[in-house]
Amino acid sequence: MASSSTHPAEKFDTSRASEYGKQSRIALAGYDACHDLAACMLAATLGPSRPANVLVVGVGGTAQEIIAMAALEPDWRFTAVDPSAPMLETATEQLQANGLLHRTALHLGHVDDLPAEPAFDAATLIGVLHHLNGDEPKRHILRSIQQRLKPGAPLIVAGNHYAYASQPLLLQAWGQRWRQQGASADEVAAKLGKILQGADPPQSEAAVQALLDEAGFGEATRFFSSLFWGAWLASRRPVDVG
Question: At what angle do helices 205-214 and 135-146 cross, to 10 degrees?
Fold first, then answer.
């Protein structure tokens, strides 16, 4: 487990926010496909062409989850939250460029800052859990989301899982992903170092499910995988037994 005293949001300064869209699409092969499929999974769960209010946690950077969902479902509206001001600013620019600001309420801060009511029809948490150091912050953010969802409402969770050092072949392939894009050996080492800085992903897919279960969600369905990355859909249990 990588340890760091730095708050996760502090890693995403102006420099990192400005390159986030490009670097994320290199680091995650299938970045856009994952977001597109997340939108499809939510639409399949909620029922297509129905109004919905969706909570988007960690929207900063590309706002790609909103862009994908909005293109599929014109009657969905979004509440987006991110603790990094530079990342939220970059997301705002993307939403403005795609004509989606009027459908999105943006909040600088944390899920806990949002009121518990009205409850949301669905939520997404993409690329966040592996930046939270330790299991308790992971449980906390999942529980905070759960408390703001309607019973039975779906949640998309996506991010890295496995301890990075436990999968040396995947780690080497991850480095080759940058080399594939023209990076030198030194640049590859620098990119990997930045990604690994302070990162603490869940240790396995079972660990992701355990966190979801402890936060009041049912069994998750994985719908996307790419090296260390996985994406799942789970739903808030109709009756909270936590």
Answer: 50
Give the CA count within 13 Å in the CB-facing half-sphere of 148. Answer: 24
Sequence-distant (6+) residues with CB within 8 A of 186 are none
Round to whole Å and give the CA distance between 131 and 117: 27
Total domains in the fold of the chain: 1
Rounded Cα–Cα distance for residues 130 and 203 (Å): 10
Residue pLDDT tens, the chain, 242 long: 233 334 665 555 555 555 677 888 888 999 999 999 999 999 999 998 899 999 999 998 899 999 999 999 999 999 999 999 999 999 999 999 999 999 999 999 999 999 989 999 999 999 999 999 999 999 999 999 999 999 999 999 999 999 888 999 999 999 999 999 999 999 998 888 877 777 899 999 999 999 999 999 999 999 999 999 999 999 999 865 44
Whether 55 maps to a domain, the answer reads yes
Residue 224 belongs to a domain: yes
> pTM higher than 0.85, yes or no?
yes
- CATH classification of the domain holding 198: 3.40.50.150
- Residue 192's domain comprises 8-235
Residue 158 contacts residue 38 (beta carbons within 8 Å): yes
Cβ(192)–Cβ(175) under 8 Å?
yes
CB-based burial of residue 219 (10 Å sphere; 0-12 exposed, 13-18 middle, 19+ buried)?
Answer: exposed
